[in-house]
Amino acid sequence: MTDAAVRRPRPVRPGATIGVVAPSGPVPAEQLEAGLKRLHAWGYRTVVGDAVLARRGYLAGTDDRRAEDFNRVWANPAVEAVLCARGGYGAMRILDGIDWERVRRQPKFFCGFSDITVLHLAMAREAGLVTFHGPMVAAFGGAEAYNAAGLRRALQEPGPLGEIPWPDPGEEGAPRPLTIRPGVAEGRLAGGNLTLIASLMGTRWEPDFTGCIVLLEDLDEAPYRVDRMLTQLLLAGKLQRAAGILFGDSPTCLQGPPDRPSLTLFEVLEDLLAPLGIPVLYGFPCGHGPHRATLPLGVRARLDAEGAVLTILESALTA
Q1: DSSP-derived secondary structure letter, 82
Q2: Which of 217, 221, 291, 314 is catalytic?
Q3: Measured between alpha carbons, how far is 164 from 167 in angstroms, rounded to an integer?
């Protein structure tokens, strides 16, 4: 996105209405209820999409129903932000059903991660919209205080978010940084889940990471699968022009199956990403671990891989 193409949503203050949608997998009712109570405690009203609790196998209802629900919630003039209930799988299946013209006309705060990566990339391409990679209503993560502080600040702070804090190292499940290649770089923050980024190759929503700080993370992928997806992106020329790479905490991807020979995830990252000659940091609290920072996608950021510091340099919201 060029500066002229960037659309920023408005701050979402307490008292505003937040819409909740389920573009991907089925949503556990008790987890949804807990998430809604959290938003209400913060002072927000909520509107829940009609299809959020629908189920069709590994999907939250049919494709048509999920797309219609997304469009209906987005079109609601009372809704100032749209949060995803959870990830899973299925958002790719509704990309052709989303009213992108409405998204362009009505920019709103949008947040989710994992499978929601395809919507982040599509919103950037279709609408130039700054979106947020962060916790979801029914998939909030286990680090309540850390995750809540980041999401609430992202919803309300019109200025640059500045340095994104790490969790206290003494907290259970707190990730630890590993510098794959040192250096400092600046660029727009873009990306998300590695599997979904690779899955969009060859589509109209295929990302362009030229000059970007590329965020990657994944869940339950053995190192050889991470290797395969990174190699695909490299063969397609998608990472060679990046400014830097921020690999989120992905604890279930570190080792291969115990009964098979394998490289570690760190060896894969060193083999494939270190030779790019750009800063690469692993372990940032923005993956499938309990700590889930809220990161604005589409604004300029600075990555210091040796210092393990990510700083958001631009406002993600309008003043």
Answers
A1: E
A2: 217
A3: 10
Catalytic residue selected from 120, 288, 291, 314? 288
Of 24, 114, 199, 250, the catalytic one is 114
Shortest CA distance to 108 belongs to which of 318, 255, 319?
Answer: 318
- State mean pLDDT over 232-249: 98
pTM for the structure as a whole: 0.97
For the question of residue 114 being annotated catalytic, the response is: yes
Tens of pLDDT, residues 190-216: 999 999 999 999 999 999 999 999 999
pLDDT in tens, 25-49: 999 999 999 999 999 999 999 999 9
User: Which pLDDT score, from 0 to 100, does residue 1 have?
Assistant: 54
Which strands form 178-181's sheet, in the order they lie side by side? 162-163, 309-312, 300-304, 184-193, 212-217, 244-248, 280-284, 178-181
Task: Kindly report the number of other CB atoms within 10 A of residue 270's CB atom.
Answer: 17
Q: How far apart are the first and last CA of the chain?
A: 20
172 is catalytic: no
Please give the structure tokens belonging to residue 266: 């760190």
Helix (H, G, I), strand (E, B) or coil at 21: strand
Strand (E) positions, the chain? 17-21, 45-48, 79-84, 109-112, 131-133, 162-163, 178-181, 184-193, 212-217, 244-248, 280-284, 295-297, 300-304, 309-312
User: Per the structure block, which two tokens stand in for 219?
Assistant: 């869940």
Active site residue 217: yes
